[in-house]
Structures are given as C-alpha cells and as structure tokens.
Amino acid sequence: MKKYFVDKNSDKLLLFFTGWGCDEYEFEHLEADSDILYFYDYIDLNYNFDFSKYKEINLIAFSAGVFVASVLDFDLKINKKIAISGNPYLFDEELGLSKEVQTMLCNVTEENADDFAKNYLVKTEEEYKKFHNSHRTVESCISEFESLKKLYERNFDRIKDIYDTAIISDGEPLFNPDAQKRFYGERARIVQNARHNIFFRIERYEDIFDIK
Length: 212
Fold this sequence. Notes:
Layout (H helix, E strand, L loop, with lengths): L1 E5 L5 E6 L17 E6 L15 E7 L1 H8 L9 E4 L14 H8 L6 H9 L3 H6 L7 H17 L10 E5 L7 H8 L3 E4 L21
Parallel strand pairs: 2-3, 2-4, 4-5, 5-6, 6-7
Antiparallel strand pairs: 1-3
C-alpha cells in the first residue's frame, strides 16, 4: 500500500486508512492538529514508518480501509480506533460488499464517476460541491480491487474487530446499514441523512471523535 504523510510538527499522529480508489486529495479539505499518515491503494499490506516520536496515536479507517487496518499487527498503543462506513469482513455477503455492489464498483469509469458520487457517496448538493475525485487512474482502482479480494482471502483468519466506535450513515448504499448496526451494537453511531462518505459533513478530523 501507499502512504502520504502530513507533518504538523506534532507529537500526536492520526493514522487514516482511506477507502478503495482513494488518495489524500479526496480529503485535503479537512484540517487536523496532529500529524496525519494516510494509507491508500491496497495492493499489498507493506508499510514502513517510524512511530517512535508520538505520544498519542489515533486511528480512523474508512470503507475498505476498515478491513485493512483490522489485519495489520501494529505494535502500537492506539488511543482511539474508529470505523467509518465499513466492516472488517469486507467481502462477506451480509456484512460486507454484496456481489451486486462489487460488480457495480468495478464498472465505475471516468465517464460515470460523477454520477456514482451523486448516487452513492454524497447526499446533498452542498456535499457534492465539495466533492472531488482522487488523482488515481481507473486502471489502478481496478487493480486495487482485485488485490483487496486476494488480500481478504489470504488474511481472513487475521481479521480482528478492533474498533471502539463505528460511524454508519442511515442511507449507506454500499454496506447493509442494518447488518452494520447488528455487528457493531452499542458502538454504532448513526449519521442522519447521509450516504457513504461523511467527510463533507465536517471541517476537521477531530470532529469525527465527537460524533455521538
């Protein structure tokens, strides 16, 4: 997988596992007090980073990143671990992406990407005005999706439910929201009148930790 680091000269770090097809550009409208380490393009599970200077580390995982973070063996003390719009069992027919959703995702192209965003990712016109696609190619996204399926099969026995809190949209179109509520139970926090991407509802990453 790839990484992108934002240095705020902080002793706190936010680990952010983005979703399938994402990169850091999709989230550049968000501010943070801490340093940020983005992970994306999950063609493998390799990472290399020196965490030694940080006194506090928090983790946010979004969509497919919820699965990826759940199988990594970080030898770290992580303060808060939040799942957003996703499930560790990414390709489970009930908890994860159904076969129909997988087919639909693999048919997203540069030509229909805006329609996909309007129908699945954002809910309001205001959110759509803030929305912008990643800088990645369609080919890289398709390759990543195939890699994710292989990583899921190879690492299924390593999946762990590590999350303290799960944020779920009431209008989630990619993951069954009722199944997510059952899986996460009292850890679930519901965002009203939203779709898959909640990041246009907030201005700072710290706001995520205050969602009730």
